[in-house]
Design a protein that fits this description.
It comes from [Clostridium] leptum DSM 753. The protein is of the alpha/beta class and 229 residues long. The protein is built from nine helices and six strands, in the order E-H-H-H-H-H-E-H-E-H-E-H-E-E-H. A six-stranded parallel β-sheet has the order 3-2-1-4-5-6. The structure holds 1,6-di-O-phosphono-beta-D-glucopyranose (B16) and magnesium ion. Residues 8, 10-12, 44-45, 171-172, 175 line the site of magnesium ion. Magnesium ion (MG) binds at residues 8, 10-12, 44-45, 171-172, 175.
């Protein structure tokens, strides 16, 4: 394998962002303030504890709680989130995700997961797509959260591909920054507005054919197959 495609999970392969939002909103309501979808954008891609800091900040409650209290709040949010993700099935895969993963595998591109989520393993299981990944990096395996590039660089190392031969698919600004810091090719996947600094952006993975990355990697690999016939 000469290339790797590293996929973020929440917001790229599956729409769990709405579940994160519902669970954080419920915590905000308990704490006595409203939390909007626009405020939730800042939480995408960042770790659970950093998300909690942003949430408390948006409610004007920063520096009010001890570490122990914050850990209890994050655990409560994660319990609610866990109840929501338990309902996921393969029907919740985002458009084009499964097809692209299979196509890449067939073309000999290493397929890697690079997610900040500590819940990634049960989510992949519910979606029934674990076997499509050559390597999985999740929030349990890294010390530094996005925008630190560790989640992506570890993924590249696990499949033995140089960073410059990796493309990263990401829906969050923190993730695009992490990919760029690793000097990987960053492809934004979002319909929620422009992601700053990505090399290309598509609304969802079903539109991958519009990217020059796809033309270069997948079309050239299938032309190679033809010439070998
Ligand atoms: P958890 P990704 C990220 O997943 C989410 O985008 C982010 O909103 C969440 O806070 C983070 O995982 C941690 O998730 O609480 O499940 O460990 O987008 O990197 O796949
Ligand atoms: Mg994401």
């Amino acid at each position: 394998m000469k290339q790797a495609a590293i996929f973020d999970l929440d917001g790229v392969i599956v729409d769990t962002a709405r579940f994160h939002y519902l669970a954080w909103k419920r915590l905000a309501a308990e704490l006595g303030f409203q939390f909007t979808e626009a405020q939730n954008e800042r939480l995408k891609g960042v770790s659970r504890m950093q998300s909690l800091e942003y949430l408390l900040d948006s409610g004007g409650l920063q520096n009010r709680f001890s570490q122990e209290e914050k850990e209890k709040m994050a655990a409560r949010k994660n319990r609610w989130y866990g109840e929501l993700i338990a309902t996921l099935t393969e029907k919740d895969l985002l458009p084009g995700a499964e097809r692209l993963l299979k196509e890449l595998k067939a073309a000999g591109v290493a397929v890697v997961l690079g997610s900040a989520s500590k819940n990634a393993p049960p989510i992949l299981k519910s979606l029934g797509i674990q076997e499509l990944f050559d390597a999985v990096v999740d929030g349990n395996m890294v010390q530094e959260a996005k925008p630190d590039p560790q989640v992506f660089t570890l993924g590249a190392e696990l499949v033995g591909i140089p960073y410059e031969d990796c493309a990263v698919f990401e829906d969050s600004q923190a993730g695009i920054e992490a990919a760029n810091r690793a000097v990987m090719y960053s492809i934004g996947v979002s319909r929620a507005g422009a992601l700053q600094g990505c090399k290309e952006q598509i609304a969802d993975l079903s539109l991958i054919g519009e990217t020059s990355w796809y033309q270069k990697i997948l079309l050239s690999s299938s032309e190679g197959d033809q010439s070998n016939v």
